[in-house]
Specification:
The chain is of the alpha+beta class. 53% of the residues lie in helices and 14% in strands. It is built from 19 helices and 17 strands. 28% of the residues are buried.
């Protein structure tokens, strides 16, 4: 068996000696330079640290006074305060601490249990409508059966009209879907009090809103659909913490995704920016939920304030890491009678005041890894000095850039000394890096080719073994009856035909995508043909293939190559459906400036983000549990990329539906 290409011992030794020599020269030159500048840098650093420490102390005293005032207001009337916190507090929470034998309980905002689908479907009307929803029934009849439950209690009615709208949309009757969704007296955007009075869940109202937006778009009411999507997005951002976990994913998909596809990219970006502090609020809520279930001490002591007359002094603690895993600051205050409260502060607002504390000096806030977090648009520059924060943000550091008004030191001698060595070092490092990268790529290509050969060999050996056994049975005279001989011959022919098809498939995908002739192509028309061909195949797999085919400008290209590339993406979506849920694949054509776009989106097992470039390389497959069952060889997507790039186009892999994949082909319009 051939072995992988490797570097011989002499080559590795030569690389090591050359690299060591240049590293030694570079270290020697840098060490001399640093020694000459050490004294000046140390003096500048000490002056900068003194300025920073004074500014930081004043700022922290001011922030602690603000926190102390909010804690005093909280201690006076906890429940009233958390319902309407002070102006410097983003959100406030109240819970009963867990004790041995008694779990904790969230008091504000109150928990939201969500929707009990099973209980709603147990309604007699819903049971009767469910019986009418058979595969043989007409979709409009099924929808009308669900719609007849629209006069039940509001939770049942909303679920019924939601299912009716789905059936109307599947039947191509967007007008009836709109009418069904608007038929109920339940407000489209109910307030929290209205939802509580009607017994509705936030998810159900959001689903109804999104269904109505989709139906209006399908009915040609594009402007109304846009306005409704924007309203839904803003409504999602004001939901309380207990429901954000379940509703905020709707913001990413479909609200922002649909807005961008409907030409409202700027509005979508603005809505996405508004969602960032909401995600911080969700993180704080999750932190509070964990604290309520724990009876352990939390956080680092921050300050003491006078408690109610019947209680001792209150000790507030801080839970932070605002620019690490979390982007919020939570002040936890244990209260009398087993209660605790949390005050969520905005670190960015607090720290922005500090950045401008020394006029004329460029201050920077650094995280635990030394990366600049504020100001966000700060240009890269060396830092003169830095000091650690105090109790509020112990994981951060305050740094100062050199004074731009100070005359720069004369460092011409250092440049003349280091430049030749630096250039030689860079050249040597570049040469070594290029050679090592080429060796690594050669080994990776060899390993992928070996894996490809092993897969193909395995797929051919099994049927060959069967053919051999049947032929030996005939040859040894074990099979003698004419009918048995005929059956054995037929089985041999069948297995050989399968092997021939497999070999032809591999040869077809392994060929280089070369353009034989160019002609004007209609991508919308090609997509329509493929959808008609592939839809039955998806139905056999229990999946649904939908199309959103907008008219496109013609492109110049080889019809066979482009059609094969488009078909390969559908084949890829069919191979990698998620067996744990109903399959959904969407084909779309559209115009994007000078580009004609063909897109296949699915809710399958998806492609991990680190592999989204590599999957277009030959012999590359995504390995792992639940993959590889379709027998791919890592050639299909490589063929797609070669075919598209030979036409001057682009192909990329993005996030799909609910963890699936989206493959996008872009070709230049004629």
């Amino acid at each position: 068996m051939p072995t992988a290409p490797t570097l011989d011992r002499s080559s590795r030794l030569a690389y090591g000696l050359l690299a060591g020599a240049f590293v030694f020269m570079a270290i020697f030159a840098v060490e001399r330079t640093l020694r000459l500048e050490a004294r000046l840098a140390d003096e500048q650093r000490q002056r900068g640290e003194a300025e920073l420490s004074a500014a930081l102390a004043l700022w922290e005293d001011k922030q602690l006074d603000r926190v102390r005032a909010e804690v005093l207001a909280l201690a006076a009337d906890p429940l009233a305060y958390v319902r309407a916190p002070g102006g410097g507090v983003q959100a406030a929470y109240l819970w009963r601490r867990a004790e041995p034998g008694r779990p904790g309980a969230l008091l504000h905002p109150p928990p939201d249990p969500g929707e009990d689908i099973a209980a709603l479907l147990a309604d007699p009307c819903m049971v009767e409508a469910g019986r009418a929803a058979t595969p043989q029934a007409d979709r409009v009849d099924i929808a009308q059966a669900w719609q007849r439950c629209g006069d039940r209690a509001p939770p049942v009615a909303l679920l019924a009209i939601s299912r009716a709208a789905d059936q109307f949309m599947a039947a191509g009757r967007a007008d009836l879907a709109i009418a069904a969704l608007e038929s109920t007296p339940v407000p489209l955007f109910p307030t929290a009090d209205e939802r509580l009075a009607l017994g509705l869940s936030v998810e159900r109202t959001v689903v109804r809103q999104l269904q109505l937006a989709e139906a209006r778009r399908a009915a040609g009411q594009v402007e109304q659909a846009r306005e409704l999507l924007l309203a839904v997005g803003h409504d999602l951002l004001v939901q309380p913490g207990p429901v954000l976990d379940r509703t905020l994913p709707y913001l990413d998909y479909p609200v922002l995704d649909d807005l961008r596809r409907m030409g409202m990219a700027q509005e979508a970006d603005e809505l996405e920016a508004l969602g960032r502090p909401v995600r911080d609020r969700l993180d704080a809520w999750r932190e509070v939920s964990r604290l309520a279930d724990s009876d352990a001490d939390v956080g680092a002591p921050l300050l003491q304030v006078a408690g109610p007359p019947s209680a001792d002094r209150l000790v507030a603690s801080v839970i932070g890491d605002p620019f690490g895993e979390r982007r919020h600051l939570l002040i936890v205050v244990p209260l009398p009678e087993g209660l605790s409260a949390g005050l969520q502060l905005d670190p960015a607002t607090m720290l922005s005041e500090l950045v401008s504390a020394l006029p004329g000096r460029a201050l920077r806030i650094l995280d635990a890894h030394g990366q600049v977090v504020l100001p966000r648009d700060a240009p890269p520059t060396p830092l003169q000095a830095q000091v650690p924060f105090g109790r509020l943000f112990p994981e951060l550091r305050l740094a100062m850039a050199p004074d731009p008004a100070a005359p720069p030191p004369d460092r011409g001698w250092r440049t003349s000394q280091l430049m030749p060595i630096a250039l030689l070092t860079l050249l040597a490092a570049g040469a070594l890096g290029s050679r090592l990268r080429a060796d690594r790529q050669l080994r990776e290509l060899w390993e992928r080719q070996q894996a490809f050969v092993n897969r193909v060999s395995h797929e051919l050996k099994t049927p060959l073994a069967g053919v051999k056994v049947m032929a030996e049975l005939v040859d040894m005279g074990i099979v003698t009856e004419p009918e048995e001989v005929r059956q054995s011959a037929q089985r041999i022919i069948t297995e050989v035909s399968r092997m021939e098809d497999r070999v032809n498939e591999v040869l077809r995908l392994a060929r280089r995508a070369e353009i034989s002739r160019r002609e004007p192509l209609d991508l919308q028309g090609l997509a329509e043909e493929l959808v008609e061909i592939w839809a039955p195949r998806f139905e056999q797999k229990g999946a649904r293939l939908t199309a959103e085919l907008e008219p496109t400008a013609p492109v110049q290209g080889d019809r066979a190559l482009i059609r094969d590339a488009m078909s390969n993406l559908l084949d890829n979506a069919l191979k990698y459906l998620d067996e744990g849920r109903p399959g959904l694949v969407r084909v779309r054509t559209a115009m994007a400036g000078r580009w004609v776009v063909y897109e296949v989106t699915d809710n399958g097992i998806g492609v991990p983000e680190p592999m989204r470039r590599a999957v277009f390389e030959r012999f590359t497959r995504v390995e792992g549990e639940g993959r590889g069952k379709a027998g791919g060889h890592g050639l299909g997507l490589a063929f797609v990329a070669e075919a598209v790039e030979s036409h001057g186009g682009k192909v990329e892999c993005r996030d799909g539906i609910a963890g699936g994949a989206r493959f996008v082909i872009r070709l230049r319009r004629s």
